[in-house]
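Design a sequence for this backbone.
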């Protein structure tokens, strides 16, 4: 007689949910938890989820009721679900639907409907909301322009706004996905990419058409963006981190859709062309003459009748773009990112202004299916020389970090690692330009920094992809949206203090699927503050399920 499998879930009183990876019910339970709980960690044996106000409100916005959530927890929980957890979830979910944003007969005026008189009084007394709202008996009037700002303040107050104001339709665009790529291979949307598309588009009614998709580097976020573009069939503004990624978007759109070069515009430092699909960079949008000047290029948001705005690497959204994004809530908005981690804790701004997380998928799940490369992460710890130790001892903390980061022994170790991987394409990545100049000369390798022209960068990337140049040295300009599909080794000389987001992005440069495994080496000076910052950088990757091997160089080199 077959016994029923042991339930995979352990629900804890602090709203954390532990999910047993080895349970036959793991996948089924994961899919049911995902709508209302955020994945925090996914190491080898137990994945950790947490129910947060944002995750619960996102579930409520998609129609989940309190009883459904309770039934799911009871169904999969190994032990009795703590009453305090059910009460917490009930309290948070009950706040959804108390406030609705509705259209009025007046074109640019909206109505914030609040039925609860006590909540009405609380909102009336809120200092930051007063400047936006004109009270009435059952709610508040506000200008369309302040739609996003009010939603953001309401989230901070603890009451999400159910935005039922229809999004406007932009100018129509005739666009279809192709069946064949340039190389003759079939173009197929992967199952998880289709799931992301469906989650964003929804049923097309009020409350849909805005949100964020979280997918690992190398998993095809650009394909999801292009699929949304083809589904919405409207004039679209796509904002990218830099010109190199802008050009990659352009090339992928031309390869995967029937749009032509004449349909695509570029709004960057070099070009200011507006077309039905326009690609811009964050840098040009936030440029201004001085701190007191206006942002002259914000006009691109209003220069055409856009029906969709796509924010690539949405976690990078600079504060000025947050501001304008608060003003353009009438447009469909898609955010794409590998991680919503921000060291400034501004994740809720992305949720409020671009939209809630509509879809995410664990890195390790895609690795297991072969959609991204299997990666091995190594932190190699290196001693400082005696002279460097003396300088380090008397330096302040910031100087200590730089001295540790620029440990000159990292040069010889980089050479040894490259020799070990002489049949691979290798990225050497760092923070400090002097350090990168030196290693580039030692390796006789091209160096890409912010001063290298976009034309020269693309030439180097092209040579690298073809295998003509086996090693390139890159500064932090290559952290984001650089498509180097055959790179399988990354050596990190130095980084931006403890940035988890940067660690994830740098690993992502070598995760494109290929026939070989990938290796990520981080070189860290032993017994220094660099070790402390490295622990924070590791945290994100270990939470995603990657094993981080810590090696002492003098011992590790014997294995080479």
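Sequence:
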């Amino acid at each position: 007689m077959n016994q029923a499998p042991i339930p995979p879930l352990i629900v804890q009183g602090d709203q954390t949910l532990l999910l047993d990876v080895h349970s036959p019910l793991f996948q089924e339970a994961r899919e049911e938890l995902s709508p209302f709980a955020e994945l925090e960690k996914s190491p080898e044996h137990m994945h950790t989820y947490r129910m947060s106000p944002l995750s619960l409100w996102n579930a409520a916005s998609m129609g989940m009721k309190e009883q459904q959530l309770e039934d799911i927890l009871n169904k999969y929980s190994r032990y009795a679900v703590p009453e305090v957890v059910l009460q917490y979830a009930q309290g948070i979910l009950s706040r959804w639907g108390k406030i609705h944003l509705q259209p009025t007969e007046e074109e640019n005026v909206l109505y914030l409907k609040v039925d609860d008189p006590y909540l009405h009084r609380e909102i009336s007394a809120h200092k930051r909301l007063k400047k936006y709202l004109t009270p009435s008996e059952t709610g508040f009037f506000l200008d369309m322009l302040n739609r996003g700002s009010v939603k953001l303040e309401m989230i901070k107050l603890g009451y999400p706004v159910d935005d039922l104001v229809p999004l406007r339709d932009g100018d129509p665009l005739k666009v279809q996905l192709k069946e064949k790529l340039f190389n003759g291979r079939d173009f197929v949307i992967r199952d998880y990419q289709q799931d992301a598309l469906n989650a964003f588009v929804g049923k097309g009614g009020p409350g849909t058409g805005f949100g964020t998709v979280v997918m690992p580097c190398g998993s095809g976020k650009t394909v999801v963006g292009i699929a949304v573009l083809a589904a919405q069939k409207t004039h679209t503004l796509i904002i990218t981190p830099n010109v190199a990624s802008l050009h990659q978007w352009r090339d992928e759109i031309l390869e995967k859709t029937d749009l032509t070069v004449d349909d695509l515009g570029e709004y960057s430092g070099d070009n200011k062309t507006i077309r039905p699909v326009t690609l811009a960079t964050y840098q040009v949008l936030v440029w201004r003459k001085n701190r007191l000047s206006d942002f002259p290029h914000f006009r691109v948001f209003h220069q055409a009748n856009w029906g969709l705005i796509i924010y690539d690497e949405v976690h990078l959204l600079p504060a000025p773009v947050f501001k304008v994004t608060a003003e353009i809530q009438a447009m469909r908005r898609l955010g794409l990112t590998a991680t919503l981690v921000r060291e400034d804790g501004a994740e809720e701004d992305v949720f409020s202004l671009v939209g809630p997380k509509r879809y995410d998928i664990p890195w390790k799940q895609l690795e297991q299916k072969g959609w991204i490369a299997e990666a091995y992460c190594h932190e190699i710890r290196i001693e400082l020389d005696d002279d460097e130790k003396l300088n380090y001892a008397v330096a302040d903390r910031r100087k200590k970090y730089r001295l540790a980061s620029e440990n000159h022994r990292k040069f010889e170790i980089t050479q040894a690692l490259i020799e070990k991987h002489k049949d691979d394409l290798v990225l050497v990545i760092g923070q400090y330009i002097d350090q990168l100049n030196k290693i580039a000369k030692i390796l006789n390798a091209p160096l890409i920094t912010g001063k290298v022209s976009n034309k020269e960068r693309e030439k180097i990337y092209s040579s690298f992809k073809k295998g003509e140049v086996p090693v390139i040295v890159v500064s932090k300009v290559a952290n984001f949206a650089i498509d180097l599909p055959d790179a399988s080794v990354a050596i990190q000389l130095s980084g931006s203090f403890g940035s988890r987001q940067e660690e994830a992005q740098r690993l992502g440069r070598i995760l494109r699927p290929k026939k070989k495994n990938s290796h990520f080496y981080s070189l860290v000076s032993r017994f220094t503050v660099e070790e402390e910052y490295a622990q924070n950088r590791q945290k994100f990757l270990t939470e995603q399920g990657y094993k981080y091997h810590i090696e002492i160089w003098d011992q590790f080199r014997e294995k080479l």
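Residues 171 and 235 are 6 Å apart (CA to CA).
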